[in-house]
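Re-run with default settings, no changes from the original entry. Doing this only to confirm the output is reproducible before filing.
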Amino acid sequence: MLSMNETAGNTCGRDVYIVDCIRTPIGLGRNTGSLHDIHPVSLLSYVLDSVTSRCNVNKAEVEDVICGIVTPVKEQGANLPRLALLKAGYPVHVPGVQLNRMCGSSQQAVHFGAQAIASGDVDMIVACGVEMMSVVPMGSDCDPELFQISATPKELKFGKFPYKLLHQGVSAELIAEHYKISKKEIDEFSVESHRKAYESSKKGIYNSQILPIKVKKGETETWFKHDEGIRYPVDTEKLSKLKPVFKRDGVISAANASQISDGAAAVLLCSGEKVKQLGLKPRARVVTRISIGCDPVMMLDGVIPATRKALEKSGLSIDDIDVFEINEAFASVVLAWKKTFNVPDSKLNPNGGAIAMGHPLGATGAILMTKLVNELERTNKRYGLQSMCIGHGAAVATIIENCNWKREKL
């Protein structure tokens, strides 16, 4: 564990700072959702414009835009971030690129951007993500054969595959069984996600991080300002009676898994030199960036080794971390992580997670980073850790430090 005066981080490379971050409200991922009628290019362009204008950064200073998109086809294809940055008023010399690391895509965009800055290749990058699941359904970019669940290794079009092909929901069931997590624990966690998200929204905790979007409701234009999936109070009796989706006697239902959603978010990353040159006020320092692979069958508990590796790399202990954002792909994933590290409830997803708010796949990593930066500032806490599980067995983890943290007087 570091002393209060020591600073965590890598031993080489330049410091990388988050200067600003912004997200849209998260919309329901169906044709009645508030964001459904907005084109993905337009939705991303809103946050790309806001993330620079809010801190008076000239868009010409940005040297790349890296965007996470999990289903990069049709409306979300054709190098969408290049189109979105041009629509947002960035000059033509700014390039854009899209990447797919499944659910960890925009968190990986933050990693790639931070790595480019740390190496000295660039000084300013926007890492971002967008996903309109109501417009481009999940799985539209792959061979349907990969969605045919197989309990044993099988022969595929591309040859013999050495692992079982399981739906992520089946893996969530395996995790619940392996870590001895009950249906009661899972449902209670889901209710808490909604409660925390509802109370945070009601108190205005999200206001500083959400970019209101003008939408049409019938013939009327209105401002969409709040995450649309939050439901509270929850009918706990109804929730407990919902049928499991992936296993006859299982524990995973629609109520304790992440919601299908629409949304976008952007994070402005700068080198220390650029911060000084432009007189910017950094909000957080990127301490550690980790990407790992894990068992493709269990698939979703990679957040555990990713967290361990991030802590080891930073020189921090689990007790040094003040706020954790562990993506709520399924309640069993977060509960397995919590049982492993024995983290207090108050530190874990303090303002709710994807079970309540939604999970617009390619955008969620940048959304969680935006939530984490704001929560560290709001509570005057120092270190935050974010981790996300990824399909086919992988995970990402990031540790950041609040640049405006002030040690409390004894």
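The chain has eleven helices and 14 strands. The chain has a mean pLDDT of 95.
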